[in-house]
Amino acid sequence: MAGAFTAHAKKENHLFVISIEAKSDEPFGITVAQRRKNNSVNSKIEQRIETLAKQLFHNVNIEGLRYQLLHGIAGTLLEAKKQKADFAVFVVQEFSTSLTNPKKQQKNSADLNLFISTLVNESVDLKNGSLLGPIRVPVGNEETNEPSLFFGKIRTEVK
């Protein structure tokens, strides 16, 4: 089970863009390094990765991070900026069944924590049922009126 869903919400005078990435125990895709290697000749993926690395990570080495997280979080931030939202929220909704592999879920948690830790330049352990933020991440060349980024994680036990 995988997929992404984006919603807009308003509370008082604040606009939220909320992206939900649904997972069971499948990984967050290949790493940035693997995505670069799988690049086709006419693709602009190399330029896209370089731009995101510079804007989000200030040129920190992101080769070991999962490309699906990079793409999803960048998309959430860009949509929030496009909508002039105050907040961008990226939530991982994890479903757990009797068939789910706990080791794969632990690997996903580690990958998500590595991504966030690299972004904020400190060790992060995002627990189920928690929300982390606000994180100020410039989107594009402007640093004014940028949405604040939050990360969330939810686990649902499915019987």
How would you sum up this structure, described in words?
This is DUF6946 domain-containing protein. InterPro entries: DUF6946 (IPR054024). The protein has 159 residues and is an alpha/beta fold. The chain has 4 helices and 5 strands, in the order ββαααβαββ. A 5-stranded mixed sheet has the order 1-2-3-5-4. The relative contact order is 0.19.
Strand order of the largest sheet: 1-2-3-5-4
Mean pLDDT: 89
Question: What share of residues is helical?
Answer: 25-40%
User: Which class do the helix and strand fractions yield?
Assistant: alpha/beta
Protein name: DUF6946 domain-containing protein
Organism: Peribacillus psychrosaccharolyticus
Pfam family, one: DUF6946
Domain DUF6946: 9-100
Helices and strands in order:
Layout: E1 2-11, E2 14-23, H1 32-37, H2 45-57, H3 67-82, E3 87-96, H4 102-120, E4 130-136, E5 148-157
Parallel strand pairs: 2-3, 3-5
Antiparallel strand pairs: 1-2, 4-5
Q: What descriptive keywords fit this protein?
A:
alpha/beta; 159 residues; 4 helices; five-stranded mixed sheet; 30% strand
Short account of what is shown:
34% of the residues lie in helices and 30% in strands. With 159 residues, the protein is α/β, with parallel strands linked by helices.
